[in-house]
Amino acid sequence: MMNLGEKLRALRLENGISTTQLELLSGISQSNISKIERNVQSPSVDTLLKITEALGTSLIDLFDISDDFPTDLVNLVNTAKKLTPQQRKKVTEMIQSFLN
Predict the structure, then answer these.
(1) Rounded distance between C-alpha atoms, residue 77 and residue 55, angstroms
(2) pTM as predicted
């Protein structure tokens, strides 16, 4: 099974996109994309959403979530995709506050 960085790199290459092109599409710097692909840096959810959106895929596809993944969590991810970056940040902060 591929790790996150390998999966992102494979998806990027499948789409014929360079890290420089992905930077332009996602707003994530080429150096950060490279670090994520090499598993040197762990991306935030916001960063992953920007990258997957630029690649025309979703977090669900990225993590190969099977059909037995809870429907409510799938719905949560799909809803989060519709939020603005500021809204996603606020929701992420709220969820993190529950965990602290």
Answers:
(1) 16
(2) 0.64
